[in-house]
C-alpha cells in the first residue's frame, strides 16, 4: 500500500518513510517474529537505488496453527491498528525511537502453491511492468497467478476468458522469456542494470515502447510510474541503452509464439477446446439475438396491422350509424 494504509480515517497514524538501515533492521525483526507463526516467509527483492521505504512487505504461507486469524500477527508485533483487505493485512507497528509514529508492515497471506510465484512476480519493483510491454504483443500475459497465453479470437470480446494458463514456475518462465536466472535472483545495483536486463528478453522490441503506439495501460504507467517513464524516455530514447542484442523479438510473430507455447506447455488440446466452446457460445448467442430481433420485428408488424385495423374500423363507424337511421323516431 506504499505506506498509506493508515493515513486516512478519523484518527490517522503517522508512518514516516524509513531510511535504508532502519528498514533492514525492522525487516529482520519482523521476519523473526513472523517465523513463529508461518512455515514460509519471504520478502521480494527491492527495486534498485531505493534509499527510503514507505512500508515493509512480507509474503507468508502455511500458518503453523489453524485456524489462523490476523490477530495472531497483530499480537506478536504489538501492532496498534490493523487494516484488512484480504489477502493483504497491514499492521501499524510502533516506529523505533520516534514516539507517536508507526511503521506500516504489509503481510500478504497466500496459499502454499502460490508462494513461489507471488515472491517471484513482485521482485524488483516495476520490472514486470517493463517486461509486460515486451511480451504483450506476442499474446503473453504475466499476472498474479502465472504466465498466460491469450487466445486472439476471444480477447477482443473477453480478456479474462481469453487467458490460457501456462505455468507459475519462476525458473521455467525465465527460461521461456530468455532471461538469465542467476541475474534475476540477485538485486540490481542500479536502475540502469535493471533496464538492461529487461531488454535481454527474447521478446524485446524497442518499437513496443514507442509513445504513439503505447496501449492505454502503458500510457497510464507512463503517467503514474516514474521508473517506467524513465525507461521509455531516458533509457530507450535517451541513448543510454548499451545492452547487446536488443530488438531480439524482431523475427518472432504472435502466431509462432502461440504454436511454441502450446507445444512447450502441452496446451494444444485445451486451446482447441476453448476455441470450440467459445465459437459454439457465440453461435448460440447470435441465434438468440436473431430470434429476439425476429420476434421484435414480428411484434412490430402485428402492432402495425392491429393499428391499421382499428383505424379502418373507426373510419367505418359514422357510415354504419347513418345507415341504421338511429336518432329518428318513426310513428306507427
Mean pLDDT, to the nearest integer, reads 87
pLDDT < 50 runs, ≥5 residues: 320-332
Instruction: Name the beta content range.
Output: 15-25%
Largest sheet: 5 strands, mixed
Instruction: Kindly state the number of beta strands.
Output: 10
Shape: extended
Return the string of H and E elements: EHEEEHEEEHHEEHEHHHHHHH
Strand order of the largest sheet: 2-4-7-6-5
Which structural category do the helix and sheet elements fall into?
alpha+beta
Number of contiguous helices: 12
Termini Cα gap: 104 Å
| Share of helix, binned | 40-55%
Indicate the radius of gyration in whole angstroms. Answer: 32 Å
Care to describe what's here?
The protein has 332 residues and is α+β, with helices and mostly antiparallel strands. Helix content is 45%, strand content 15%. It is built from twelve helices and ten strands. The protein has helices spanning 20-34, 71-77, 115-121, 127-135, 152-155, 170-177, 181-184, 191-198, 216-224, 226-236, 254-264, 268-324; strands at 18-19, 38-42, 52-53, 56-63, 81-85, 88-94, 102-109, 140-143, 146-150, 163-167. The strands form three sheets. It has a five-stranded mixed β-sheet, with helices on both faces. Helix 9 crosses helix 10 (226-236). The radius of gyration is 32 Å and the shape is extended.
Amino acid at each position: 500500500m506504499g505506506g498509506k494504509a493508515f493515513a486516512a480515517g478519523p484518527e490517522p497514524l503517522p508512518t514516516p518513510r524509513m531510511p535504508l538501515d532502519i528498514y533492514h533492521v525492522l525487516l529482520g525483526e519482523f521476519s523473526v517474529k513472523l517465523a513463529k507463526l508461518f512455515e514460509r516467509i519471504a520478502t521480494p527483492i527491492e527495486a534498485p537505488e531505493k534509499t527510503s521505504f514507505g512500508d515493509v512487505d512480507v509474503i507468508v504461507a502455511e500458518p503453523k496453527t489453524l485456524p489462523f486469524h490476523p490477530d495472531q500477527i497483530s499480537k506478536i508485533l504489538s501492532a496498534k491498528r490493523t487494516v484488512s483487505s484480504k489477502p493483504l493485512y497491514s499492521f501499524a507497528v510502533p516506529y523505533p525511537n520516534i514516539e507517536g509514529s508507526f511503521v506500516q508492515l504489509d503481510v500478504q497471506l497466500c496459499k502454499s502453491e502460490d508462494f513461489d510465484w507471488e515472491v517471484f512476480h513482485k521482485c524488483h519493483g516495476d520490472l514486470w511492468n517493463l517486461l509486460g510491454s515486451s511480451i504483450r504483443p506476442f499474446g503473453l500475459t504475466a499476472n498474479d497467478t502465472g504466465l498466460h497465453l491469450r487466445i486472439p479470437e476471444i480477447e477482443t470480446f473477453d480478456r479474462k476468458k481469453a487467458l490460457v494458463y501456462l505455468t507459475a514456475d519462476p525458473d521455467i518462465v525465465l527460461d521461456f522469456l530468455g532471461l538469465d536466472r542467476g541475474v534475476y535472483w540477485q538485486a540490481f545495483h542500479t536502475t540502469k542494470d535493471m533496464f538492461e536486463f529487461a531488454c535481454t528478453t527474447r521478446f524485446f522490441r524497442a518499437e513496443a515502447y514507442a509513445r504513439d503506439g503505447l496501449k492505454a495501460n502503458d500510457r497510464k504507467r507512463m503517467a503514474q510510474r516514474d521508473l517506467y517513464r524513465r525507461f521509455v524516455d531516458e533509457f530507450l530514447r535517451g541513448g543510454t541503452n548499451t545492452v547487446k542484442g536488443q530488438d531480439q523479438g524482431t523475427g518472432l510473430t504472435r502466431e509462432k509464439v502461440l504454436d511454441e507455447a502450446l507445444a512447450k506447455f502441452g496446451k494444444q488440446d485445451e486451446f482447441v477446446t476453448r476455441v470450440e466452446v467459445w465459437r459454439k457460445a457465440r453461435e448460440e448467442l447470435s441465434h438468440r439475438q436473431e430470434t429476439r430481433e425476429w420476434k421484435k420485428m414480428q411484434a412490430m408488424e402485428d402492432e402495425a396491422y392491429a393499428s391499421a385495423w382499428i383505424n379502418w374500423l373507426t373510419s367505418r363507424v359514422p357510415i354504419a350509424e347513418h345507415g341504421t337511421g338511429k336518432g329518428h323516431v318513426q310513428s306507427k
